[in-house]
Amino acid sequence: MFRIIGTLVEDGMAVLMISSDLAEVMGMSHRIALYRAGQIIDTQMNEELTPEKIMAQLTGAEVNENI
Questions:
Q1: What whole-number distance in Å separates Cα of residue 66 and Cα of residue 15?
Q2: What is the DSSP string of the chain?
Q3: What CA–CA distance (Å, rounded) separates 62 from 19?
């Protein structure tokens, strides 16, 4: 499946992937849209996000980057 997705992206097609597997999403995405309560709450380029930032936005928690 990942090979097929990679081929589609290389051919210039957009691919929408919905997954709760954060490592999978971060490993396969260029841009990530975050949804909470059925609404898009943020869309950012993958390199601008960390797993901690994503989870904070999804849960509404604050991120302490000094930890």
A1: 35
A2: -HHHHHHHHHTT-------S-HHHHHHH-SEEEEEETTEEEEEEEGGG--HHHHHHHHHTPPP-TT-
A3: 23
Q: How far apart are CA 25 and CA 17, in angstroms?
A: 8
Backbone angles phi, psi at 53, to 5 degrees: -65, -40
Note down pLDDT in tens along the chain; length 67 residues: 788 988 998 899 988 888 889 998 898 888 999 988 889 999 999 999 999 999 998 888 776 665 5
Identify whether the C-beta of residue 52 lies closer than 8 Å to the C-beta of residue 66: no
The reply to whether the predicted model has a pTM over 0.85 is no
